[in-house]
UniProtKB/TrEMBL annotation:
Boundaries of every Mur ligase central domain copy: 62-201
Every Mur ligase C-terminal domain range: 295-417
An annotated GO cellular component: cytoplasm
Domain of life: Bacteria
Known function: Functions in two distinct reactions of the de novo folate biosynthetic pathway. Catalyzes the addition of a glutamate residue to dihydropteroate (7,8-dihydropteroate or H2Pte) to form dihydrofolate (7,8-dihydrofolate monoglutamate or H2Pte-Glu). Also catalyzes successive additions of L-glutamate to tetrahydrofolate or 10-formyltetrahydrofolate or 5,10-methylenetetrahydrofolate, leading to folylpolyglutamate derivatives.
Record protein name field: Dihydrofolate synthase/folylpolyglutamate synthase
Amino acid sequence: MNTPSTDARPVTVPPGAGASVEKWLQYLEAIHPTEIDLGLDRVLVVLRRLFPRKPAARIITVAGTNGKGTTVAALESLLRAAGRTTGAYTSPHLQRYNERVRINGQDISDAALISAFEQVEAARGKVSLTYFEFGTLAAFVALADAGVEDWILEVGLGGRLDAVNVLDADFAVITSIDIDHIGFLGDNREVIGFEKAGILRPGITAVCADPEPPASVLQQAAAQKVNLKVTGRDYRLRPVGDSVELTIEGLSITLPAGPLPVESVAAAVVLARVLAPTMTVSLLADTARSVTVPGRFERLRTRPDVIVDVGHNPHAARWLAQRLELQRSGQGKVFGVYAALADKDVEGVMRAMAPVVEHWWFAGLDVPRGLKVQTLVERARACGIAGCTASESVADAISSALAEAGENDTIVVFGSFYTVAEARARLAGEVS
């Protein structure tokens, strides 16, 4: 998610000494003609200038349709609990770009981020880079400058042609495979699986958290002799009361059933057993219970509950609906505040959430690719959703929903990182 600049004028001259992060981000937005331009050729040229040799750190790459952020956060916590130093790169961000790069669990400082931007700018010469490509290379520089032992890298889109994939993974996780970004990745799971599996490298150890991985993933893993650990085959998950039991190699590890996707947490635990083999079962379990991810089934307020979730495709919406159903005590209603980007399967999301949402508040997103509220309402009606209220902004929709909700009700705000960012800004200081 590129945070829109406060200055709409393009900035084509590199920022000078003392420039702010915001000035650098304005520059990054202006130097390439398109926002998304998949391919590794441009990035590889600049990478070789920045890193003549592969970084000494262990490279752990995470791809998947949903659950990537949870896996990255869980791996971070697990490896740090094992005494390792970590760097993480994720996208998009919610409030500040600095959230995308974490050093030992802490957001990168402005000074370190600007230094990384300056190094990429000096190395790229006349090579044109997208906002994401430039930021990805800057993240690599920042992690190298920090000297951390493990780099945990989240793929931005797909896998095979994503800028993150310019570095060869030493270990990998594929979290889930479903339909999203059809214009870039294809319209079926086999084709999308092929793109996700592009992060695999010969002979590495990898984890696949999808319970029904496409044949394209298994075929690529077999062809490259990847030690692929697949859920349901090499490790198993079984609900036990309010928890989930992970069984692997004769060990049983108790994981929380929520609020994060347990499949993604389990994948991180499975890989952590390879990356940090001395971790005890109790340390693995205790650390997994402590993992949190901003914007992922995050409760911002109580009485009524206000929960935000960045889920933006049908797969994520089905998971969200299940979590809401599980937490319901039989009392209270569920109100939905939904705002989305125009290139998303909003009908699929609505159908997934319709069984649990009793009244909808739709809102427009005033960002590039943001869907106008009236279009959202029209598409909702085409899905048979009649009980809805239109609002011009997410903040207005939340205020309207709060005015209607009782103490036992739940308001769930979802549909995009932009949606959650607006919700967090609206409710700043109100977190209970």
